[in-house]
Amino acid sequence: MRIIGLDFGSKTVGVAISDPLLITAQGKEIIRRERPDKLRKTLARIEELILENEVTEIVLGDPKNMDGSDGERVRKTLEFKEMLERRTGLPVHMQDERLTTVEAEEYMRETGIRRENFKEYVDEIAAMIILQNYLDRTENERKK
Questions:
Q1: pLDDT for 44-91, tens place per residue?
Q2: Which of 53, 62, 97, 127 could form a disulfide with 16 if both were Cys (CB 3.0 to 4.6 A apart)?
Q3: Under a CB-based contact definition with an 8 Å cutoff, are residues 115 and 6 in contact?
Q4: Which domain range does residue 105 map to?
Q5: What is the 3-state secondary structure (H, E, C) of 63-125?
Q6: pTM, to two decimals
Q7: Which CATH number do you get for residue 98?
Q8: Half-sphere exposure (CA, 13 Å, Cβ side) for 40?
Q9: How many domains are there within the chain?
């Protein structure tokens, strides 16, 4: 049993996968598309990853504004959530993703990734942070 974490953007989807014990999240890849409305190949790749990794749940970053309000990105992400649920039949949990990009950039600086290469990794690392935050939160809820 594993969980897949997704950072859904206008042209990319960062992907992370949990370990079988649901303790840690590892970055997997970045799915790129040419246009924001072209999602068929993106969804097909996510399905492949779900099957390859025996995924039973999906965590999707919730792109709320810093003040907690919903913007245009939230609407598009919720539409993507519905597509994922219909196509995979798996539950999709929303996880607050505020400041994950900032955290991802800090992580890249600390690990020595050059600033000009940040764009190459940021979505995958953001997905890893989203999934890790979800794993930590649900672990804490189970302990209560």
A1: 999 999 999 999 999 999 998 788 788 888 899 999 999 999 999 999
A2: 127
A3: no
A4: 2-143
A5: CCCCCCCCCHHHHHHHHHHHHHHHHHCCCEEEEECCCHHHHHHHHHHHCCCCHHHHHHHHHHH
A6: 0.90
A7: 3.30.420.140
A8: 0
A9: 1
